[in-house]
Amino acid sequence: MQTAHTEVSSTTVLHLEGISKSFPGVKALNNMAIELRLGEIHAVCGENGAGKSTLMKLITGVYRPDSGTMSLNGAPLVVHNPNDAYAKGIAIIFQETSLFPELTVLENIFMGHEVLRPLLGGLAFLPVLDYPTMRAQAKEIFSRLGMDLDLDARVADLGVATKQMVEIAKALSFDSSILILDEPTAALTSREVATLFDTIGKLKAHGVSMLYISHRLDEIFQIADRVTVIRDGEHVHTEDVIKVTRDQLVSWMVGRTLHNLYPKEDVEIGEVVFEARDIRQEGKLGGVDLSLRRGEILGLSGLAGSGRTELALALAGLTERDSGEILIDGKPATFRDYRGAMARGIVYISEDRQKYGLVVPMSVSENITLPLLHRISGLAGIINRGKEGTISDRYIADLSIKTPGGDFVVNNLSGGNQQKVSVAKALAMEPRILILDEPTRGVDVGAKSEIHRIICALARSGKSIIMISSDLPEILGMSDRVIVMKGGLKVGELSRAELSQEKILELAL
Amino acid sequence: MSDKARASRRPRITYQVALGGLLVALILLFGAIEPVFFYPDVLFDVTSIVGEIGIMALAMTFIITTSGIDLSVGFILQLSAISFGAVFAGTGNLALAVSAAMVAGILCGFLNGLIISGTKIPPLVTTLATMSLFRGLSMILAGVNSFSGFPEGFKKISTTLLFGVVPIQFIYLIVLFLVFNLVYTRGRLGRHLKGIGFNENALIFSGIKTKRILLLIYTLSGFMAALASMVYLGRLSSAKTSMGNDLNLQVITAVVLGGTSIVGGIGSMSGTLIGVLIIGVLRKGFTLLNLSGNVFNFTLGLILIVALVIFAVLERRKALAGRTQPAAKT
Amino acid sequence: MSGKRKVSREAILGILVVAFMAFLALTSNFDSKSGIYSMMLDVSPSIVGAIAMSMVIITGNIDISAGTILGFVAFAAGSLAELGAPAWIFIPAGILMGICLAGLNGWISVTFKVPSIVVTLAMNMVHLGFYATFLPNAGWVENLKDNFTWLGRGRFFDLVPYIFVIALLVAVLFMYIMKNTSFGKSLYAVGGNRQAAIYAGINPDRTVIKVYLVEGLLLGVAGILKATTANEIMPSAFQGREMIFISAAVVGGVSILGGGGKVLGAVFGAFLVYLLSIAMIYLGFQDYFQFSLQGIIVLIAVFVTVTDFTELRKKLRGTFTRAGRARKARA
Fold first, then answer.
1. Confidence band of C230 (pLDDT split at 50, 70, 90)
2. Is A276 helix (H, G, I), strand (E, B) or coil?
3. Can you give the residue ranges of every domain in chain C?
4. Confidence of residue C3 (pLDDT cuts 50, 70, 90)
5. What share of chain C is helix, strand, coil (3-state, %, to 5)?
6. Alpha-carbon B205 to chain mean position
7. Measured between CB atoms, does B31 come within 8 Å of chain A?
8. DSSP per-residue string spanning A425-466
9. Among the listed ranges C148-162, C209-223, C299-313, which one has the minimum average pLDDT value?
10. What is the ipTM of this complex?
11. pLDDT of residue C147
């Protein structure tokens, strides 16, 4: 691919300045700026949660900025919805698919902006679809992309990569001059990635400007002209790719120096209590080994989609593994589902507390006691409210959950307190092995360090913890040992002494 | 516990009170038009005519709380009654006939539960289809016959009057209500049902076997329909294929009217009981005023729609209020 | 790219219909002129109703009150005809009735965000009660004259009923509409991926109301087709028709979860549902087997469309094969 590192035009097509955007509890973007020039491939990179996707959703009208200005070709830009953005020549290929599975490729490409013609050549008030024109246009687009696709194939029957091509074709059908690609290679094989890059090169040759979001550095060096690094919702650096090195990019992404935010204390690490051997899951995990000691905090690092969560789910029996063995205290554990795993002391706390962790319209105490109702209810299944109150009050106090009372609805708590309820719920099961998936995502700084303190206290009390996190300082500050994953495989294991952000990123990218 | 906390825990209390007010107002209204309505035996008779729908509505509250629905209960009742009639006509053995009715009801409910928990077919489509299935089965079983001539002892299960005025259905309803209410408000099952209605994933991630719970409650619904069929038969004293046809809607109306949300999670067993009683008062009142069963069905359908609309509006207002309400600060 | 082009579901259904007819013709007197005639007579309203229901189901909704709406349509058209109104009055009147009632369903469901199943279930009851309470003689219209029944009884070449031709014309028209208009495409979009539909600039609420209006129009047509074949009209007798429409739609491959299905499939579905019921009668089963049969057909058809078979096969393989059992045992 020889399109990279060409002379960048000086004409600005899209310009964002001073953009800020907050969500309840999180400041996603702060005074963000980016400038896209004519015909360039502009990479945007940053850690998970740095604000890349939010930025793109602002440009395409999914969200509105709280403040700041956007302009397109020098004129102010206001976008109401993605179709409006399309009409203005800005197209996005979303991470989540926006296709209609039961419809054909052709129907998908023109959904919402069909080419119409008057019925019977003259009845202008009865517009019908002009299939010949659409077909010709679609053919032309695909030939521009250098591929031949059956326009009448049902999208549900296509592979992931082909679906992505359909999305790109859909974007191009608007005559877009700006194309935004959000992690387009996340689900692709390397062969498919090559095809995609080929396509991108052809588009560039046709004068399309592109924002290319990725945290895969290799890709950036392969195709991008310029790169912008975002960290914590803020603009860090924009530079010609040719002028930067990989290490420089990594250091910009990491940026932060480690402050003493992390209360990690050294606890005595005991014997191996949990062991997983050759865990496999078709298409997700390619044989992972892992061991965990008493009192140990094991960090699980890697990019989004590297198989961290998949591994956690498999270890907890929440998904079925194709093969592999789990040992507890050196003996094979034969649980077949999460209930069985819980009985053996394994508890998993989901990264998505709204969706999998909590029943948010229910009260704090109802949530905490949800998994252990069988323990606090009598023969007739009637809940002993006294015991329920005792348990929930204890954990509310232990984790200092800020709530007016145990019967306050979780929905009305702040993100940090919701997360604490999620942790309390897990602790109430009195686990030996705790798997925490992104325990501090979407939580403000104060609550974050409180959660860290709780995790440390748990380790001190002899529990073993697996902590998945995309937050590198957190992984560094908290872990006794770190396993780095990539593509469903364990690609490295670092002891606390060996840990550095650069090393982890090096392995993960 | 602060007042604010209490308010956010018990948002529906005013709705149920209003509903109780509506019940009283209806009684007063009918009584004003037709004073005979105030006679204790007439007033208590309300509970005898809603005995069967009350029994089914209790189980239906469980189901709707999980955001499911069972459209087939009326026809499970029918099939149970026909099974009872057919077996009794064939053998003359009452115990055998009762068992047949119970088995029929449980099997129907189990079939619903099996399909709903084991496949991706939504509850409404499942029970819409099994509704036809059960209806056909009872027609096949009965042909053009209707079964009657049940022993007096059997009829006593729904014709007994305590103290000369209180129908035995009143006792059934109160006892079953107490049990269901206890399970619903204080029991593990009740908690799980509300959880499923709000967010089934969170329960699965708490190690709760939600599919088993769904299987259980649809089977329970079938069992309660069989029970209801016995109470119904004792009163009507003949089993035929026209019975139960319009009970589905009455049961669902009672539950929705009682404040159980059709989208799941929120519900009230006492609301269901009041809903059932309102339906009973309407039916009794309409009979006294010589209005036909069709007027009643028409009114009922309207009430259901109005209840749904009011509920949707209340929910939306609450959602809006919730958004502006500040979260407890960390 | 896609070398192995699959035979379309509609083609399979079509072959099934023809095969079924051939089977019936060989094993019974179905091939007699009267057998063919009564099939065409009976299946015509079902075709139109199944198309109406399919469009609603494609958007992810349903209409349980379709049967009782037909009753209103028949009553409106029939009683106008009884007063001597000609076709150009009673046909639009019936259709208008359908549009209003179905439109009301859609409006309530969308405006108050109440699931369409519950709204239309309640409406079903309201309609039935309304017939008996407010319509003269419960809506019973007797002694329909030629000015009404010519439509249902007329035939071409002494064989093909007018209404069958009308039903086929409607089918062709709606096949064209679903394939060739933005409106048709938006139905699939809303039912298939609501979020993406919004991204594509489609307003789902408005689309759903529109689909109910169109459904009402078609129910108007179906109601008139059905009513004109009879001597008298009893609105409450139309209750239960909705199950035939739903069965035809799902048998025809319309996904109950929304987003997929074709008009042609629903047309074949209507034929299949009819042929199955005829077969039951020829095989000596009583009429009331229809109910059970319909229930079972719907369950099977829905199961087939909503189940991910590759996943199921994998699961079953794990349960029943020796390798799978061994693997499980090891795990």
1. confident
2. strand
3. 9-330
4. very low
5. 75, 0, 20
6. 31
7. no
8. HHHHT--SEEEEESTTTT--HHHHHHHHHHHHHHHHTT-EEE
9. C299-313
10. 0.81
11. 82
- A chain contacts of residue C198, beta-carbon cutoff 8 Å: 81
Which tokens go with A159? Answer: 């592979």
Chain C residue with minimal CA distance to A63? C199
- Closest-CA residue in chain B for A336? B207
Phi then psi dihedrals of residue A466, to 5 deg: -110, 120
Say how far apart CA B93 and CA B91 lie, in whole Å: 5
Q: How many CB atoms lie within 10 A of CB B3?
A: 8
- Contacts of residues C131-137 at CB distance under 8 Å and 24 or more positions apart, as own/partner, are C131/B294, C131/C68, C131/C71, C131/C72, C131/C75, C131/C235, C131/C236, C132/B292, C132/B294, C132/B295, C132/B297, C132/B298, C132/C236, C133/B292, C133/B294, C133/B295, C133/B298, C135/C75, C135/C235
Residue B324 lies in a domain: no
Q: Are residues A146 and A285 in the same domain?
A: no
C5 pLDDT higher than 60: no
B136–chain C nearest CA distance, Å:
4
CA distance C17 to C13: 6
Chains that touch A (3 or more CB pairs under 8 A): B, C
Out of A388, A409, A429, a domain closes at A429
Helix (H/G/I), strand (E/B), else coil: B286: helix
**Closest C-alpha among A346, A328, A350 to residue A337:** A346
Q: What is the pLDDT of residue C84?
A: 82
Name the one residue in this structure whose structure tokens are 């369950």: C299
Q: Are A92 and A170 in contact (CB under 8 A)?
A: no
CB pairs under 8 A between B and C: 138
As a whole number of angstroms, the distance between CA C237 and CA C266 comes to 23
Q: What is the CATH code of the structural domain delimited by C9-330?
A: 1.10.3470
pLDDT at A436: 92
Q: Is A246 in the same domain as A98?
A: yes
Q: Choose among C114, C124, C288: nearest Cβ to B262.
A: C114
Amino acid sitting at position C328: K
Quick one: how far is CA B289 from the chain centroid? 26
**pLDDT 10s digits, A120-177:** 766 667 788 889 999 999 998 888 777 788 898 888 888 777 888 888 888 888 878 8
User: Residue B156 sits in a domain of what CATH number?
Assistant: 1.10.3470
* Stronger pLDDT, B293 or B268, i.e. the higher one: B268
Tell me how far apart the terminal alpha carbons of chain B are, to the nearest angstrom.
18
Average pLDDT, chain C: 85
Helix ranges restricted to H, A160-270: 160-172, 190-205, 217-223, 246-254
| pLDDT < 50 regions, chain A | 1-4, 257-258
- CA B93 to CA B80: how far, in whole Å? 16
Q: What does the alpha-carbon distance between residue A429 and residue A481 come to, in Å, rounded to a whole number?
A: 25
Tell me the residue range of the domain where A199 lies: 12-254
**Residue B323: pLDDT band by 50, 70, 90 thresholds?**
very low
Structure tokens at C317: 């393989």
The β-bridge partners of A347 are: A434
Residue C183 near chain A (CB below 8 Å) = no
**CB-count exposure of residue A218 (10 Å: 0-12, 13-18, 19+):** exposed
Helix (H, G, I), strand (E, B) or coil at A120: coil
Asked whether residue B8 is domain-assigned, the answer is: no
pLDDT at C67: 94
The H or E element spanning position A411 is: none
Contact (Cβ atoms closer than 8 angstroms) between residue A114 and residue C186? no
What is the structure's pLDDT at B73? 94
Which of B194, B195, B218, B216 lies closest to B207 in space, CA to CA? B195
Q: pLDDT (tens digit, 9 = 90+) per residue, C160-213?
A: 899 999 999 999 999 999 998 999 999 999 998 888 888 888 889 999 999 999
